[in-house]
Amino acid sequence: MCRFFNPRYSDRCDEPAVEPPRDPERANFCDWFKPAPGAWRGGDDAAAARARLAALFGEAPAGDAQPPPDPQEEARRRLEALFRQDDEKGND
């Protein structure tokens, strides 16, 4: 993804002043790194990706699925259910 990357060189870099990484299998840092134009091309939106996955695995389209519950609403619902159970037990 670097604009100086060149697979023809042994150190794979067009910049002559750069030192090759000590261990290319591990994370390393390069002061010369500059993102190459067009190195990252944004992908499709998440909904389109989910629809393609659903089609691939034979699942219902994403529009038919229920959206995941809101964590705060789910916590509130559980809390209210817990207190309703306690109230019902105390009224017997």
Overall pLDDT level: 76
How far is it from the N-terminal to the C-terminal residue, by CA? 69 Å
Q: How many helices does DSSP assign?
A: 2
* Portion of residues within helices: 25-40%
Strand segment tally: 0
Main structural class: mainly alpha
Outline the low-pLDDT stretches: none
Q: Could you characterize the architecture of this molecule?
A:
This protein has helices at residues 46-56, 71-90. The longest helix is centred in the C-terminal third of the chain and has 20 residues, at 71-90. With 92 residues, it is an all-alpha fold.
Task: Summarize the topology.
Layout: H1 46-56, H2 71-90
Please describe the structure with a list of short key phrases separated by commas or semicolons.
mainly alpha; single chain; 92 residues
